[in-house]
Amino acid sequence: MHIPPKYSRYIKIAGIVFATLIVLFLIGAVIAYSKREAILKTVVEKATLKAKRDYNLNLSIRDPHFEGLSTIAFSDIAVVPENRDSLLHMDDLHVKVKLMPLMLGEIKLAGIRLRSGKLSLVKRDSLRNYDFIFKRKKDSSATRSKVNYSDLANNLLNQLLYKIPDDMDLKNFELNIIRDTSVLSFDVPSAVIDDGALRSTILVNKNESVWHLDGNVEPSDQKLDFKLYAEGKKVELPLIERKLGLKVNFDTVYTQLKSTRKSGDEFHIYGSWAITNLLINHPKVAANDIIVPSGSIDADLLVGENYIAIDSSSVIHLKNIEINPFLKFTLSPAKIYEMKIHTPELDAQQVFDSFPVGLFESLEGIRVAGKLQYNLDFYLDSRQPDSVRFSSSLNPSGFRILKWGKTNLQKINSTFVYTPYEYGKPMRDITIGPENPNYTPIDAISPNLRNAVLTAEDPSFFSHRGFVEKSIKRSIATNFKEKAFKRGGSTISMQLVKNVFLNRQKTLARKIEEMLIVWLIENNHVSTKRRMFEVYLNLIEWGRNVYGIGEASRYYFDKSPMDLTVGESIFLANIVPRPKSSLYFFQPDGSLRTSLRGYFKLIGNLMASRGLVPRDTNAYGFYSVRLKESLRRQVAPVDSTVADSLFDEDGGNNGLFQDILPDRKPDTIHIDELTRLKALQDDTTMSRSERRKLRRELRRKEREMQRNKDD
Q1: Consecutive H or E run containing 306
Q2: pTM to 2 decimals?
Q3: What percent of the chain has pLDDT over 90?
Q4: d(C-alpha 551, C-alpha 440), whole Å
Q5: Beta strands in 514-614 (DSSP E)
Q6: Tens digits of per-residue pLDDT, 372-405?
Q7: For the range 49-55, what are the long-range contacts, defined as Cβ-Cβ under 8 Å and sequence gap of 24 or more?
Q8: Gap between the Cα atoms of 254 and 498, Å rounded
Q9: Distance of alpha carbon 498 from alpha carbon 420, whole angstroms
Q10: Is a pLDDT exceeding 70 seen at residue 463?
């Protein structure tokens, strides 16, 4: 091919420049090679000084030297924090780096050979030999630069992959985790990476258990695929159990990093994670072991400039069902929490079969037919928690129940025995049916009592299908602002299910099971609303060892439920959430304390606005309520002696606005009233004028509570 003369000249110049660069590089390489030992010695000295100056670590390395072109050998490496237990010791370490990346300023490991090493993480009382990890350098700049989480994640993952060698030969490495007198040890007699194949054996607590780590690692291609399993038994994590009280074990866990990609401001990590026979046990999760036979997720993890997310293209697999989740956590400028879950139409039986073993005991063995489809949409901006978005729907198609599981939910339609518990101990057996002389059919209960309870606890009970979405949103917002469970969202349906079918343990599993049973009862017409309300009124607690409206009306007022006045009914409705505080509201002469008068007016006005009672300017019977004489001697003056009766952990039926409460001090009775009033805002039937009155009463209660706090 003929090249024009002018281009030929340029090619020659380029060739001369390239040849010159090669010569200069070779000269530099020869000089660097000849001085590499001196350079290495200088680097080690600087590292030793930096460890001492910045982290108060005593670092010592004997005879660091080069072996061959790119391998560095170290002997007797020791890291000892000042006045602490020894942290690290290695007898012999050989590290081989890749030359081309090194020339570009990147350190990528080509190989590691280690003989005899020991890492000890020690905590004795409050002293730790790894405190330096948490030490922050002083920021010399006035303001810190904004963190770009996408770039940070990309860099961290690359640094991690760079540190995985192509070849590794590790012998006799030991990791000890020491907390005072307890020791957890991991001995690695051998760990090998040979042409990407990873094989490792880990002895836990001196052969108490044998773990294996097997798989393939290709860090240059950004691919990892390995599994962790135990020999002849489960992998157990006692350190997590000691630290968090969370018992976790499993047969095998699989991890696969498929690829990564930087797209604009987003860093994508594509991977899969799977686990078999996962066992979880924690008192806040469930009362017993929960077992997940198999589960996995194919995830597209997104890291943006200010957020972390799991994309909706990700798929969760539980047995034979698939779920598409979307999770997003925005970190700045304010924290925002987002969650969406969508499933296609799923075989209903496969859905119930996919529940982890031990999670929903009462439903184990249930047989169903038809299809189910679920949607969840949740959004919470920490700057505007009251604007929380929440919707949840389980949509049936041809769904029907063929056979009940461990618990027959139809038992509420006929006579059954109810056993209330306190502090985990049964109180007594109560027959819910005509055989019990205190049982009262709904038509024999005063309309005043029925209407007062509905108005205070669940105004839309006869129209909703088990849940009030608006109340749940208010509950989420309140609990988020208070950083504690101050308010629940339980309807009468949920209270009934909790009392009849479930234990009183406050666990996440129990709450989810409660909601699922409510859905089954309400959406499959297992029982009528009228029957549910009748059972509810006949079994809820109304005072210390007082259960059912028949017992309650005679206990407080020595009369039958049909004869209850408006005032007596509003009082009884008031104590439903915290029945053990009932006697607190009375004066020693049997009259009510004046702090309850505003509540009477509010509930009475709401009842009157619906035509349930006549309008009354005299606080709807507040002044006529009188505790029966034989009980008045139990009424204590206003002081701390009533504390025990007010806030028992197991007390209460926990209504629409108050389901899970923390321990509280005696003077928080006003908070109870305030919470009750705030809950009434969920009533969608309330008129504009009623809402104005409610807001005024709320402000009055808040001022009263502040005055008591100041006093």
Answers
A1: none
A2: 0.76
A3: 44
A4: 10
A5: 541-543, 546-547
A6: 999 999 999 999 998 999 999 999 999 999 999 9
A7: 51/79, 54/135, 54/137, 55/81, 55/132, 55/135
A8: 38
A9: 11
A10: yes
